[in-house]
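Possible race condition, two jobs.
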Amino acid sequence: MMFCIQSHRERESGRESSMDARGNDVPVSVSPPSDQVYEVKVDQNGSTNQSYPFADVELLQAFKPLIVPCYVLVVVVGVFGNYLLIYVICRSRKMHNVTNVFIGNLAFSDMLMCVTCVPFTLAYAFNPRGWTFGRFMCYLVFLVQPVTVYVSVFTLTAIAVDRYYATVHPLKKRISMVACVYILSGIWLLSCTLVAPAVVHTYHVEFEGEDLTICEEFWLGQETERLVYAYSTLLITYILPLSAVCVSYLCISVKLRNCVAPGHRTRAQAEAQRARKRKIFRLVSLVVAAFGVCWLPIHVFNVLRDIDIRLINKRHFLLIQLLCHLCAMSSSCCNPFLYAWLHDRFRAELRKIFTCRRRIGISTNRCATASVVL
């Protein structure tokens, strides 16, 4: 799976290789989704980069006290921040518009990504028994994990395009709420479609004579197809969305820089407008940088692994992979702040809701009304 830790898989020279702790070949029982059972004998590729079997696992265990708290922090911040974002959007009628529906969908997918990607990834990476959640959860988790990632990426792109039209073409008719629902449905459907080939090639593998079970992608005898799928996914889920986000926000920045308010302005008003433009430009730069930086390491890692796994040092393989995965998951923490909490309206609505809840002697109806009026 493209964004999930694969603790016990190695791919060299277009072949799958599986070894036990002593570096010997291990026959495995593969249970594919069709419930058929195959006996697979996999040969070891004796390269110098495999001199120390599972040395990367030992190194990963040494960094466990540092890695686990980082992942826990990502889950707590990601789930809590995105939940508050969804709560504010649902609670306040003032926030019910197309842009905020996109942001709410982004928050939901990010929250789901934190819940599905992080716990199972940690358990799988650090458990010496490998995958311990059963065959059904193997297929379910490896379906949900990339779907949430793709939905987040495509929703970020939709938000950028929506803001482009709202800023650069303000007189054009905005998309309706019905069209917004269709777009979001298309995003979820496209994400599920992109994941389908990977799920079809996902197997629940039990090692005979070893207390080890893995849940992995195996493209047995289909190395060319696997590479085509991997690079197509890279193009669709990173290069094209990043390009669209960069172009959209670049046009927004140019439009705002060249925009001149009508009428005679005082010096204070002119300075206030320049400050607002600088703030928007910084925010736009942060959005683009966060999107590019968070997802770049895992994509670079995957490309290097696909070109030649020996380009990545054997001893540090899993540690590097886990750190790249952590960087990608951190995007779920950045998005609530970049798309909501740095905006005055969201902060005002949040303060209004919680201030109203703390008041004593005010009726619920008045509280609901106060949260709507700006």
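Job #2 (started ~2 s after job #1):
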Amino acid sequence: MRFGVVPSSVRRDVLAWHGSAGQAWLDGLPKTVWRLQRLWSLRTDGPPYGGGSHSYVVPVRRENGEQAVLKVIYRDAENAAEPTALHQYAGDGAVRLHEYDPETGAMLLERAVPGNRLKSTRFFGHRTPEAAWRRIGIACGLYRRLWRPLAEQNGFPALPAATDMLDLWREEYGDRSGAARKGPGAARLDLALELCDRLSDPPELGIGNRDTHLANIVSAEREPWLVIDPKPYLAERAFDGGFLLFKLQLLGPHSGTVLLDAVAEGLGVDVERLRAWALLRAIDHLTEVETERDVAAAEATVAALELA
């Protein structure tokens, strides 16, 4: 298998976030890809996919000619359990996992064809509010299907817990001398701590997803739409909607109570727990943005979710 150039976004982010460990991963990629090519009898079927931040992803063909995707991840706490979720989904609303390499976390995945992202798909009247509702309905339907009780993991990585996210936020936001207390989100951190306490006792636990957004859903032939790139957590159902609602509120065109109610109904979750998770994700975003424009947008998103 000929090794393709690592996308610039992947190289940049892995080095920025992981330093020397990221460089070691990049240096070892050609050998890793070569080993997996031999292990799984693959041949390259095009250049690596662009974009992304933590993965080298390239189209391949299997020995029988079937189209597939080889995904080699920089393994961290957020994405290590991706193969666990895909194994348990078994192709029900998400791309199938064909093979998994425990040594590296690499995966051989079903290739979704044509693979157009829901976020940028042109429906009739794609710029209208009606088209936006259609995208939201598709996303909610898929993420509602994918939430399920966690079965025996059978050698796959354990899922991190959503309550661990709450503990990290408590530690960061509760530090009165910490960086978060000096940033643009400082005025919202006491609210965030209240929300962490409110969400600390989930009503149920299953496979949730912390990275729910419209760019992680692509068109396919086996099903009209499939989820890719899940970031699974052991979490309640409302956890899924936290990031989805936050991103939809941030980007529009819909907002406020009507959006909150639509996402809650679409996911089949409690409105107030959904709002709490979305507010936490929005406040977390507010603590990280830097430009005046981004701060203003993040503050408006937090305010809209509070008032919804």
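The longest helix spans residues 8-40.
Logs attached separately.
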